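Project standup — Tuesday

K.O.: blocked on the structure for the chain from last sprint. Re-posting the sequence here as requested.
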Amino acid sequence: MKKLTTVIFILLFSVPAFSQFLNFGIKAGVESNTTPEYNVSRNISHNFWIIESMKNASWGFHGGIFTRINIFSLYIQPEVVFASTSFDYTLNNWVLGSTAFEVSSYTKSQKFNRLSVPLLVGMKLGPLRINAGPAANILIETPKALIDAPNFDEIYKGAVWGLQAGVGIDIFQKLTIDVRYAGSLGRQFGDVITIGSQNYRLDHEQRTFLLSVGWMF
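H.V.: unblocked you, prediction finished:
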């Protein structure tokens, strides 16, 4: 019993010292993502689709957890963040009629839910911080197909690598505010598929601007 009491006291008194080197936190915020572009290389056929984005970028949200490992004026910060963004498209279906092509148009939304796992290395300048590092982006579920085609879902990659960099500020060593830029390495989530005689490619060299607020424990 005495040994157990001694261990408990040691742990209690070591928590404040340990918290100087390791912090846990939660965060949430908004982000602006460039819209994925579905580029179509088409041949003359009786039926093909043109997919056009309605906006160059859309707003989404994110939220997750992070750990900050403090090493003097440097720190390492791994994060696990859920992010979701919806994009709007105009779909034009061209069908060859008896004498000419006829087109029908409608709009459709597509939601991308992903898990972002950045590993940032940063430097503290008083309350200010700068950081940068790689980030894995993982699709949680395949977005709903924009057109009714059996292999349209195959256009999406399950995971890709990107980079994040930004600045932040800590207020009272508890409240954190971050502004970051995130870019992808290569065509994010994008492959080439063939539907009929048309080749569809998802150009998703996504550029994202993030604003988040967090709380450290």
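K.O.: great, moving the ticket to review. The domain at 22-38+58-86+111-216 is CATH 2.40.160.20 (Porin). The longest strand covers residues 101-125.
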